[in-house]
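Holo prediction. Input below; ligand is cytidine-5'-monophosphate.
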Amino acid sequence: MSKSILLIIGGGIAAYKCLDLIRRAKERGIDSRTIITKAGTEFVTPLTVSALSGHKAHTDMFDLGSETEMGHIQLTRMVDLVVVAPATANLIAQAAGGLASDLASTSLLATDKPVLMAPAMNVRMWNHPATQRNVARLKADGVHFVGPNEGAMACNEYGPGRMAEPLEILAAIEALILGPQPLKGVHALVTAGPTHEPLDPVRFLGNRSSGKQGYAIAAALAAAGAETTLVSGPVAIAPPAGVKLIKVETAHEMLAATESALPVDVAVFTAAVADWRPEEIASGKIKKTSGPPPSIKLATNPDILASIARAKLRPRLVIGFAAETENVVVQAVQKRSKKNCDWIVANDVSHGVFGADRNKVHVISADGSEEWPEMDKHDIANRLVARIAKALETAA
Ligand code: C5P
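Structure of the complex:
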């Protein structure tokens, strides 16, 4: 099941970093519900926040007594964690004093979920005994803190008070909501996206792979604690946080990048590698003439999965994907032995899986075939990573 947070955005210049936090959390399968304090709306707009999170951004600019708004308290119960970022001196003081004078402070008082605060304020405000007293009281109440970091501040002073970076906050969020990391110490490799095989400087052969499933798997592996390298063909999605990204264009580049990432414990091959490439790449743009259209002579690309599955440094667990349009399981069983991989995740692509957010797969291993219900690609990634963790644990 995917995780969610309630992000309370306070009124500080660091509020802009929350936009990146929401985006990166989403890539890792963490949904963000949001409340922006009145002061927070001076720094980020509800429109931007709701566009990024995909949900209405609640603000303090309403009547707390109104029945429709009372429902927002429910938000604090639905989520796995409440995050306050930036946690201003005022929000910290309100929470420490148990005040419920607006939606943000009311939510902090009403929640039964863990709370994480990312303070951000002027260095003197942070060092003030009142703030330090409030922080100590909140810590005693069980509130978690990430940062503040030390550095140059927007107010031209230097010292502690800078809000932690989005990736640091995300790591703290994951540590709190994902619990133990079963893949700590494990090295993982994922290939994702299509490859582009050039014909000339402006044209290429490619395919419709969006990279979504592979990116979700890389994110889930990293969230489970694995040191993850993602070798990706050209895609339009942002890389997951905490993952080492190697961008490539062609199958040959993907093979070289994959080989250079070895040794790893587990490798997941989700890339839709072009089976063929133009045998020759024209040095200039091929000109349109009045004669017959040019014909393209193709050469066979290397099979990256098959090559790594037979390599000297073969990962302990090699997982391939198989996109089929008919006899999905039968084809995938054959592919598993032909390519010497441990598992094949097979999906039926006759109904437009490429680019979609959901997928339906069969997982084929030496133990037989397992049919999974249709799920969000992030949920498939999480379930696959749980299976990987179990397999590596058994093999260890
Ligand atoms: O043979 P087919 O392309 O259907 O096999 C799919 C699986 O093999 C996927 O895991 C894909 O990432 C991998 N593959 C590869 N290199 C190729 C072709 C496929 O790694 N050239």
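The pocket of cytidine-5'-monophosphate is lined by residues 191, 251, 269-271, 273, 301, 303-305, 320-322, 335 (CB under 6 Å). That is the main takeaway for now.
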